[in-house]
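[09:14] KT: can someone run the structure on this one? pasting the chain below
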Amino acid sequence: MTSREFCRIAGRLMRRPAAPFHEHAVREEVERLCREHGLAFRRDRFGNVLVRLHTARVRPLVLAAHMDHPGFEIVRRRGAACRVRFQGGVGDSWFRPGLPLRLMPSGARAALGPRVGKDKTFELIPRQPVDSADAFAVWEMEDFSVRNGRIHGRACDDLIGVAAILATLIELKRKRARVNVIGVLSRAEEIGFRGALAVADSGALPRTSLVISLETSRELPGVRMDSGVILRVGDRALVFDPKAGRFLSEVALDLQRRNRSFQFQRALMSGGTCEGTVYQEFGFQTAAVCVALGNYHNCAPRNRIAPEFVSVKDACGMVDLLVHAARCMPKYERMTSALPARLRRLLRNARRRLLTSAT
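[09:31] RB: done, C-alpha coordinates below
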Protein backbone atom coordinates (compact mmCIF):
# COMPACT_ATOMS: atom_id res chain seq x y z
CA MET A 1 0.00 0.00 0.00
CA THR A 2 1.31 3.44 -0.86
CA SER A 3 1.97 6.03 1.82
CA ARG A 4 -0.58 8.31 0.16
CA GLU A 5 -3.32 5.68 0.44
CA PHE A 6 -2.42 4.95 4.06
CA CYS A 7 -2.59 8.66 4.90
CA ARG A 8 -6.02 8.89 3.28
CA ILE A 9 -7.30 6.11 5.54
CA ALA A 10 -5.68 7.64 8.63
CA GLY A 11 -7.06 11.08 7.77
CA ARG A 12 -10.61 9.82 7.43
CA LEU A 13 -10.42 8.27 10.89
CA MET A 14 -8.58 11.11 12.62
CA ARG A 15 -11.07 13.71 11.42
CA ARG A 16 -13.68 11.95 13.61
CA PRO A 17 -13.04 13.04 17.23
CA ALA A 18 -13.57 10.44 19.95
CA ALA A 19 -13.22 9.91 23.68
CA PRO A 20 -13.68 6.84 25.89
CA PHE A 21 -17.25 5.52 25.41
CA HIS A 22 -17.79 8.11 22.66
CA GLU A 23 -16.20 6.40 19.65
CA HIS A 24 -19.34 6.40 17.49
CA ALA A 25 -18.07 8.70 14.72
CA VAL A 26 -14.80 6.77 14.36
CA ARG A 27 -16.71 3.50 14.35
CA GLU A 28 -19.03 4.74 11.60
CA GLU A 29 -15.99 5.68 9.49
CA VAL A 30 -14.41 2.27 10.13
CA GLU A 31 -17.57 0.55 8.96
CA ARG A 32 -17.82 2.85 5.94
CA LEU A 33 -14.27 1.93 4.91
CA CYS A 34 -15.08 -1.77 5.36
CA ARG A 35 -18.12 -1.49 3.10
CA GLU A 36 -16.15 0.40 0.45
CA HIS A 37 -13.52 -2.34 0.33
CA GLY A 38 -15.80 -5.35 0.71
CA LEU A 39 -14.52 -6.36 4.15
CA ALA A 40 -16.85 -8.39 6.36
CA PHE A 41 -17.43 -6.79 9.76
CA ARG A 42 -19.77 -6.89 12.73
CA ARG A 43 -20.31 -5.06 15.98
CA ASP A 44 -20.32 -7.10 19.14
CA ARG A 45 -22.84 -6.33 21.88
CA PHE A 46 -20.33 -4.04 23.59
CA GLY A 47 -19.93 -1.83 20.51
CA ASN A 48 -16.50 -3.08 19.46
CA VAL A 49 -15.96 -3.78 15.75
CA LEU A 50 -14.61 -7.11 14.48
CA VAL A 51 -13.43 -7.21 10.85
CA ARG A 52 -12.54 -10.55 9.24
CA LEU A 53 -10.79 -11.70 6.09
CA HIS A 54 -11.01 -15.52 6.03
CA THR A 55 -9.80 -17.02 2.76
CA ALA A 56 -7.83 -20.04 4.03
CA ARG A 57 -8.02 -22.65 6.78
CA VAL A 58 -5.00 -21.48 8.72
CA ARG A 59 -4.40 -20.38 12.29
CA PRO A 60 -6.16 -17.05 12.99
CA LEU A 61 -4.10 -13.90 13.28
CA VAL A 62 -5.81 -11.23 15.41
CA LEU A 63 -4.78 -7.57 15.02
CA ALA A 64 -5.99 -5.38 17.90
CA ALA A 65 -6.17 -1.58 18.27
CA HIS A 66 -8.50 0.90 19.98
CA MET A 67 -10.74 3.66 18.62
CA ASP A 68 -10.79 6.05 21.59
CA HIS A 69 -8.40 8.78 22.75
CA PRO A 70 -8.23 10.73 26.04
CA GLY A 71 -10.97 13.35 26.25
CA PHE A 72 -13.65 14.99 28.39
CA GLU A 73 -17.10 13.60 29.17
CA ILE A 74 -19.94 15.99 30.03
CA VAL A 75 -21.06 14.84 33.49
CA ARG A 76 -23.41 17.61 34.62
CA ARG A 77 -25.69 20.19 33.02
CA ARG A 78 -27.58 22.99 34.73
CA GLY A 79 -29.02 25.34 32.18
CA ALA A 80 -26.11 26.73 30.19
CA ALA A 81 -23.59 25.57 32.80
CA CYS A 82 -21.71 22.28 32.28
CA ARG A 83 -19.07 20.26 34.01
CA VAL A 84 -16.71 17.89 32.24
CA ARG A 85 -14.53 15.08 33.56
CA PHE A 86 -11.31 14.12 31.83
CA GLN A 87 -10.87 10.45 30.99
CA GLY A 88 -7.37 9.26 30.18
CA GLY A 89 -3.78 9.53 31.30
CA VAL A 90 -2.65 13.17 31.40
CA GLY A 91 -0.81 14.75 34.33
CA ASP A 92 -2.34 17.55 36.39
CA SER A 93 0.13 20.20 35.22
CA TRP A 94 -1.25 20.12 31.66
CA PHE A 95 -4.72 21.32 32.68
CA ARG A 96 -4.85 25.11 32.63
CA PRO A 97 -7.99 27.28 32.66
CA GLY A 98 -8.73 28.80 29.29
CA LEU A 99 -7.44 25.93 27.14
CA PRO A 100 -9.68 25.66 24.06
CA LEU A 101 -12.05 22.72 23.72
CA ARG A 102 -14.40 21.45 21.04
CA LEU A 103 -17.78 20.07 22.07
CA MET A 104 -18.97 17.00 20.24
CA PRO A 105 -20.84 16.14 18.18
CA SER A 106 -21.89 19.76 17.48
CA GLY A 107 -18.34 21.13 17.12
CA ALA A 108 -19.18 24.15 19.31
CA ARG A 109 -16.24 26.01 20.85
CA ALA A 110 -15.63 26.11 24.59
CA ALA A 111 -12.81 26.57 27.09
CA LEU A 112 -11.59 24.73 30.15
CA GLY A 113 -12.75 26.34 33.37
CA PRO A 114 -11.67 25.97 37.01
CA ARG A 115 -11.10 22.54 38.50
CA VAL A 116 -13.83 21.19 40.76
CA GLY A 117 -12.80 18.78 43.52
CA LYS A 118 -9.91 16.33 43.53
CA ASP A 119 -10.66 14.32 40.42
CA LYS A 120 -10.23 15.73 36.93
CA THR A 121 -13.60 17.48 36.83
CA PHE A 122 -13.76 21.04 35.51
CA GLU A 123 -16.24 23.77 34.84
CA LEU A 124 -16.85 24.28 31.14
CA ILE A 125 -16.84 27.80 29.70
CA PRO A 126 -19.00 27.80 26.53
CA ARG A 127 -17.96 30.10 23.69
CA GLN A 128 -21.04 29.07 21.72
CA PRO A 129 -24.38 27.60 22.81
CA VAL A 130 -24.08 24.02 24.08
CA ASP A 131 -26.19 21.65 21.99
CA SER A 132 -28.39 19.21 23.91
CA ALA A 133 -26.79 16.38 21.91
CA ASP A 134 -23.26 17.27 23.01
CA ALA A 135 -21.87 14.47 25.17
CA PHE A 136 -18.10 14.94 25.23
CA ALA A 137 -15.31 17.38 24.43
CA VAL A 138 -11.83 17.17 22.95
CA TRP A 139 -8.88 19.53 22.78
CA GLU A 140 -9.38 22.12 20.05
CA MET A 141 -6.54 21.49 17.59
CA GLU A 142 -5.94 20.16 14.10
CA ASP A 143 -7.55 16.79 13.48
CA PHE A 144 -5.10 15.64 10.84
CA SER A 145 -2.28 16.89 8.64
CA VAL A 146 0.80 15.51 6.90
CA ARG A 147 3.97 17.62 6.98
CA ASN A 148 7.59 16.68 6.33
CA GLY A 149 6.96 12.95 6.50
CA ARG A 150 4.95 13.18 9.74
CA ILE A 151 1.27 12.60 10.46
CA HIS A 152 0.11 15.24 12.97
CA GLY A 153 -3.19 15.23 14.81
CA ARG A 154 -5.08 14.95 18.05
CA ALA A 155 -5.45 11.18 18.05
CA CYS A 156 -2.56 9.33 16.45
CA ASP A 157 -3.00 7.15 19.54
CA ASP A 158 -4.48 4.80 18.49
CA LEU A 159 -6.12 5.67 15.20
CA ILE A 160 -2.80 5.01 13.46
CA GLY A 161 -3.16 1.45 14.79
CA VAL A 162 -6.76 1.27 13.57
CA ALA A 163 -5.70 2.60 10.17
CA ALA A 164 -2.89 0.01 10.01
CA ILE A 165 -5.34 -2.83 10.63
CA LEU A 166 -7.72 -1.63 7.93
CA ALA A 167 -4.84 -0.99 5.51
CA THR A 168 -3.49 -4.51 6.16
CA LEU A 169 -6.87 -6.12 5.48
CA ILE A 170 -7.45 -4.00 2.37
CA GLU A 171 -4.02 -4.93 1.00
CA LEU A 172 -4.46 -8.64 1.73
CA LYS A 173 -7.85 -8.67 0.05
CA ARG A 174 -6.49 -6.76 -2.93
CA LYS A 175 -3.70 -9.34 -3.34
CA ARG A 176 -6.16 -12.24 -2.89
CA ALA A 177 -3.95 -13.58 -0.12
CA ARG A 178 -4.74 -16.93 1.54
CA VAL A 179 -5.12 -15.78 5.13
CA ASN A 180 -7.28 -15.84 8.25
CA VAL A 181 -7.12 -12.39 9.86
CA ILE A 182 -9.44 -10.78 12.42
CA GLY A 183 -9.21 -7.08 13.18
CA VAL A 184 -10.45 -6.09 16.65
CA LEU A 185 -11.20 -2.37 16.99
CA SER A 186 -12.06 -1.78 20.61
CA ARG A 187 -13.60 0.92 22.76
CA ALA A 188 -12.62 2.70 25.97
CA GLU A 189 -9.01 1.51 26.13
CA GLU A 190 -7.80 4.74 27.72
CA ILE A 191 -9.63 4.10 30.98
CA GLY A 192 -8.77 0.48 31.62
CA PHE A 193 -8.98 -1.54 28.41
CA ARG A 194 -12.76 -1.85 28.72
CA GLY A 195 -13.47 -2.96 25.15
CA ALA A 196 -10.49 -5.32 24.92
CA LEU A 197 -11.44 -6.96 28.22
CA ALA A 198 -14.96 -7.56 26.92
CA VAL A 199 -13.68 -9.06 23.66
CA ALA A 200 -11.07 -11.25 25.36
CA ASP A 201 -13.69 -12.69 27.71
CA SER A 202 -16.53 -13.03 25.21
CA GLY A 203 -15.45 -16.12 23.29
CA ALA A 204 -15.56 -14.17 20.02
CA LEU A 205 -11.91 -14.98 19.22
CA PRO A 206 -10.67 -18.53 18.57
CA ARG A 207 -8.49 -19.65 21.48
CA THR A 208 -5.79 -20.72 19.02
CA SER A 209 -5.39 -17.17 17.71
CA LEU A 210 -2.10 -15.35 17.65
CA VAL A 211 -2.90 -11.82 18.87
CA ILE A 212 -0.80 -8.82 17.86
CA SER A 213 -1.53 -5.58 19.72
CA LEU A 214 -0.96 -2.40 17.66
CA GLU A 215 -0.15 0.90 19.32
CA THR A 216 1.66 4.17 19.08
CA SER A 217 4.04 4.44 22.02
CA ARG A 218 5.99 7.39 23.37
CA GLU A 219 9.52 7.63 22.01
CA LEU A 220 12.00 6.24 24.55
CA PRO A 221 15.82 5.95 24.60
CA GLY A 222 16.87 3.14 22.30
CA VAL A 223 14.19 3.67 19.66
CA ARG A 224 14.03 6.42 17.07
CA MET A 225 11.25 7.84 14.97
CA ASP A 226 11.82 7.18 11.24
CA SER A 227 13.88 4.06 12.04
CA GLY A 228 11.05 1.62 11.43
CA VAL A 229 8.23 -0.24 13.10
CA ILE A 230 9.02 -1.42 16.64
CA LEU A 231 8.67 -5.09 17.60
CA ARG A 232 7.39 -4.52 21.13
CA VAL A 233 8.91 -7.10 23.46
CA GLY A 234 6.67 -5.96 26.31
CA ASP A 235 5.02 -3.02 28.01
CA ARG A 236 5.03 -1.50 31.49
CA ALA A 237 3.14 -4.48 32.93
CA LEU A 238 4.77 -7.57 31.42
CA VAL A 239 6.83 -9.21 28.68
CA PHE A 240 4.89 -10.80 25.82
CA ASP A 241 5.10 -14.37 24.53
CA PRO A 242 8.70 -15.15 23.42
CA LYS A 243 7.69 -17.56 20.65
CA ALA A 244 5.23 -15.04 19.20
CA GLY A 245 7.94 -12.39 19.39
CA ARG A 246 10.38 -14.73 17.65
CA PHE A 247 7.84 -15.21 14.85
CA LEU A 248 7.57 -11.46 14.30
CA SER A 249 11.36 -11.14 14.32
CA GLU A 250 11.67 -13.86 11.67
CA VAL A 251 8.91 -12.24 9.61
CA ALA A 252 10.68 -8.87 9.83
CA LEU A 253 14.05 -10.36 8.84
CA ASP A 254 12.49 -12.20 5.92
CA LEU A 255 10.77 -9.02 4.77
CA GLN A 256 14.06 -7.13 5.06
CA ARG A 257 15.78 -9.71 2.84
CA ARG A 258 13.08 -9.16 0.23
CA ASN A 259 12.96 -5.37 0.59
CA ARG A 260 16.16 -3.65 1.71
CA SER A 261 14.35 -0.39 2.44
CA PHE A 262 12.25 -2.05 5.18
CA GLN A 263 13.43 -1.12 8.68
CA PHE A 264 12.45 -2.40 12.10
CA GLN A 265 13.49 -2.01 15.72
CA ARG A 266 13.04 -4.23 18.77
CA ALA A 267 12.46 -2.82 22.25
CA LEU A 268 10.71 -3.06 25.58
CA MET A 269 8.31 -0.10 25.38
CA SER A 270 7.63 0.54 29.06
CA GLY A 271 6.01 3.96 28.67
CA GLY A 272 2.56 2.49 29.22
CA THR A 273 0.47 -0.67 29.27
CA CYS A 274 -1.21 -1.81 26.06
CA GLU A 275 -4.01 -4.19 25.10
CA GLY A 276 -1.44 -6.95 24.59
CA THR A 277 -1.38 -7.37 28.37
CA VAL A 278 -5.13 -8.02 28.39
CA TYR A 279 -5.02 -10.68 25.70
CA GLN A 280 -2.00 -12.43 27.19
CA GLU A 281 -3.52 -12.50 30.66
CA PHE A 282 -6.72 -13.97 29.18
CA GLY A 283 -4.76 -16.89 27.73
CA PHE A 284 -4.01 -15.80 24.16
CA GLN A 285 -0.54 -16.14 22.69
CA THR A 286 0.34 -12.48 22.24
CA ALA A 287 2.89 -10.22 20.60
CA ALA A 288 2.87 -6.48 19.95
CA VAL A 289 4.11 -3.86 17.52
CA CYS A 290 4.09 -0.09 17.68
CA VAL A 291 5.48 3.07 16.14
CA ALA A 292 7.25 5.84 18.03
CA LEU A 293 4.92 8.68 19.07
CA GLY A 294 5.64 12.34 19.72
CA ASN A 295 3.60 14.43 22.20
CA TYR A 296 2.06 11.33 23.80
CA HIS A 297 -1.56 12.04 24.83
CA ASN A 298 -1.11 15.58 23.46
CA CYS A 299 1.41 16.41 26.19
CA ALA A 300 4.13 18.57 24.65
CA PRO A 301 7.22 20.06 26.35
CA ARG A 302 6.70 22.95 28.80
CA ASN A 303 3.23 21.62 29.73
CA ARG A 304 1.71 22.56 26.38
CA ILE A 305 -1.23 20.73 24.82
CA ALA A 306 -0.35 19.95 21.20
CA PRO A 307 -1.03 17.47 18.39
CA GLU A 308 0.58 14.05 18.51
CA PHE A 309 2.77 12.97 15.60
CA VAL A 310 4.21 9.82 14.05
CA SER A 311 6.41 8.98 11.07
CA VAL A 312 4.53 8.10 7.87
CA LYS A 313 7.40 5.78 6.98
CA ASP A 314 7.16 3.91 10.31
CA ALA A 315 3.37 3.52 10.03
CA CYS A 316 3.58 2.17 6.48
CA GLY A 317 6.34 -0.19 7.61
CA MET A 318 3.97 -1.53 10.26
CA VAL A 319 1.42 -2.32 7.53
CA ASP A 320 4.08 -4.07 5.44
CA LEU A 321 5.10 -6.17 8.45
CA LEU A 322 1.51 -7.19 9.25
CA VAL A 323 0.72 -8.09 5.64
CA HIS A 324 3.78 -10.34 5.54
CA ALA A 325 3.00 -11.82 8.98
CA ALA A 326 -0.50 -12.79 7.84
CA ARG A 327 0.91 -14.53 4.76
CA CYS A 328 3.56 -16.32 6.87
CA MET A 329 1.11 -17.79 9.39
CA PRO A 330 1.10 -21.24 7.68
CA LYS A 331 4.89 -21.32 8.28
CA TYR A 332 4.64 -20.28 11.95
CA GLU A 333 6.06 -23.49 13.44
CA ARG A 334 8.86 -23.76 10.89
CA MET A 335 9.86 -20.12 11.34
CA THR A 336 9.86 -20.31 15.14
CA SER A 337 11.75 -23.64 15.30
CA ALA A 338 14.94 -22.33 13.66
CA LEU A 339 16.46 -20.94 16.88
CA PRO A 340 15.77 -24.04 19.05
CA ALA A 341 17.21 -26.26 16.29
CA ARG A 342 20.33 -24.10 16.11
CA LEU A 343 20.77 -24.29 19.89
CA ARG A 344 20.43 -28.09 19.82
CA ARG A 345 23.19 -28.28 17.20
CA LEU A 346 25.38 -26.09 19.39
CA LEU A 347 24.62 -28.34 22.36
CA ARG A 348 25.78 -31.45 20.48
CA ASN A 349 29.06 -29.77 19.57
CA ALA A 350 29.44 -28.35 23.08
CA ARG A 351 28.99 -31.74 24.73
CA ARG A 352 31.74 -33.32 22.66
CA ARG A 353 34.26 -30.58 23.43
CA LEU A 354 33.26 -30.28 27.09
CA LEU A 355 33.53 -34.04 27.63
CA THR A 356 36.95 -34.31 26.01
CA SER A 357 38.28 -31.39 28.06
CA ALA A 358 36.52 -32.12 31.36
CA THR A 359 39.53 -33.74 33.06
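[09:33] KT: thanks! The chain has a mean pLDDT of 96.
[09:34] RB: yep, looked fine to me
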